[in-house]
Amino acid sequence: NAGVTQTPKFQVLKTGQSMTLQCAQDMNHNSMYWYRQDPGMGLRLIYYSASEGTTDKGEVPNGYNVSRLNKREFSLRLESAAPSQTSVYFCASSKNRISGNTIYFGEGSWLTVV
Amino acid sequence: DAKTTQPNSMESNEEEPVHLPCNHSTISGTDYIHWYRQLPSQGPEYVIHGLTSNVNNRMASLAIAEDRKSSTLILHRATLRDAAVYYCILGGTGTASKLTFGTGTRLQVTL
User: Are residues B31 and A90, on separate chains, in Cβ contact within 8 Å?
Assistant: First the structure.
């Protein structure tokens, strides 16, 4: 099973460039999430989508936009990348938003903004 | 949001049990206690979760204090592959999307 797949795995951007991180899950989950993890830190929620057609801001949404393209796919866009957005980005999904559900994570996308 | 407190790091010898503590004194009645772990250069991985009763699965056991203000993740026989950062997280009803990951406990396992 592929689970949660995110691309690209590594990316270097120049300040001001834009890019989109792609994420897809094959578990028929309703809820999807984007987190970022800075060195030595825990994960922080950027945006989430409780179900197809809905998106909501998390803890650190500034500088990002998201699109829930369909039930499987949830993309994260950086419109004008800044060095402060250098981080590891994780996409995740769960059956729904209920707290008892397990969240499944992708392997991460390492982004460097120079 | 309710917070958790974990030691920054712990060490264990291989093949020995490991008890990872977590304090959550402000937990509410509907908060689930989740444990995830993150191996180097990987995404977090689900370990176990519970509400009130102790829980067991193939990976670990979760012991929850009677007042629910603390819990302990128990790895019965640590292996080198268990070396990771372990996160104790609280999630209330309808807020799985807002699980907040702290800095966790870094577990080192030695031969």
Answer: no
What is the least distance, in Å, from the CA of A95 to any CA of chain B? 10
- Asked if pLDDT for residue A2 goes beyond 80, the answer is no
Please state, in angstroms and as integers, the Cα–Cα distance from residue B39 to each residue in A109, B7, B69, B89, B96, following that order. Answer: 15, 17, 27, 17, 22
**What's the confidence (pLDDT) of residue A1?**
58
Q: What is the pLDDT of residue A9?
A: 96
How far apart are alpha carbons B36 and A98 in whole angstroms? 17
Is pLDDT above 80 for B98? no
Kindly state the tokens that stand for B62.
Answer: 């979760």
**CA of B111, closest CA in chain A: separation in Å?**
25
Is residue A50 within 8 Å of A94, Cβ to Cβ? no
Specify the pLDDT at position A40: 81
Neighbours of A9 (CB within 10 A): 10
- Who among A50, A105, A106 is closest to B97 (CB)? A50
Q: How close does chain B come to A18, measured CA to CA in Å?
A: 24
